[in-house]
Give the backbone structure.
Amino acid sequence: MVDTGLRVKKRRLPTGETLSLGAVAGTCGLVVAAELIFAQNGSVALIIPWVTAVLGVVVAGIVGVPILRRLKAGQIIREDGPQNHHKKSGTPTMGGIFVVPVGVLLSLLWTHLDPQVVACCLLTLGFGLIGWFDDWQILRRRSSKGLSAPMKLWLQGGLAFLFCTWVAVAQDWTALSQVTLPLKASLSLGVLFFPLAIFVLLGSNNATNLTDGLDGLAGGTGAIALISMAVIVSPTHPQIALFCALMGGSFMGFLWHNRHPARVFMGDTGSLALGGALAAAAILSNTLWAYAIVGALFIWESISVILQVYYFKATRRATGEGRRLFRMAPFHHHLELSGWHETQIVRTFYAISFLLGLLALSLKAL
C-alpha cells in the first residue's frame, strides 16, 4: 500500500459538548426503558413532555443569555474558592430565570392546572424567587455575599411552613404520613410527618445549592434526579410525574448553555428552585425513600460541608489550630483540588446519579 502522506483529521466533540450529549442520551435511555417497564401499569408518556421542555429552555437561553450579558449580570467569584475559578468571573448568572418559568409554565399547561402540580409549581417559584433575591443582592453589592444565612433560612422555612399548611388543609395528610419504604414496607409518622417534610424541603434546596459549583454539575445531576423521580412516581401519580419530567427537561436543556465552559450559571435562582421541585414531588407522591436514594449525591455534598465545619471546630478546640477534613468543601471542590479535572468530576457525578436512579427504580419494581 502506498502511503500518500495524507491524513484525515477526525473531528472530536469538545468535552463539555460530550458531557451534555452523554447526559441527554443517558436520561433518554432511562425514560424509554422505564416506559417499557411500566407500560402495563398505567404510566404516562414522559418522553414527549421531556423533549419539549429541553427544546424550550434551549431556545429561551438563546434569547436570555445575551440579555443577562447586556445587563452585566456577571458572577462574582468567592475569594476563598478554588483559584482556577477566578477566570469564570463575569460569566452571566441567574440563568434560573429562564429555566424555572419554562418548566413551571409547561407543567401547568400539560397537567391542566392539577392542584398538586400547582402547589409544586408555586413552591418551586417561591424558592426560585428567594434565590433570585440572593443573586440580585450579590450583583447589586458587587460582592460574593448576598442574603445573610439566617435571613435565607427564615424565608425558606416560611415557604416550607406554608406548603405544609396547605398539605394539612387540602390533602389527605394521614395517608402521606404513612411513609412508604422499599420492599412494600411502611412507617406511620402521624404529626411527625410535618417536621420531616419541612426538614426535607429545607435540606433539599440547600443541598442542590451546594452542589451548584462546577459547570453543568447541578443542572445535569438535578435533571437526572428529576426524571428518575418522574419514572418512579409515574404509575401512581401521573400528574406529578409530568411535573418532574418537564422540570427535568428544563434543567437538561440548560446544559446546552451551562456545559463546560459555561456561558451562563443558574445561580441560586435555579439551584434553590431545583431542590424545592424535587422535595415537593417526593412529599406529595409519598416517595421520600426514593428521593433519599436518587438525591444521595446532594445529601453527600451537604454532609461534606457539615463534616468539614465540625472537624475544623473540634480540632481547634482540641489543639488550638483548626484542621480540615477535606481540602475544600463541598466535596466536588475537594476532588478538584486533589487533581481531578472539572469535567472528570461532572462526568463521574452524572454516572453516579444515573446509577442511583436505576437503583431506586429497581427497588420500586420490587
About this structure: Residues 15-365 form one domain.
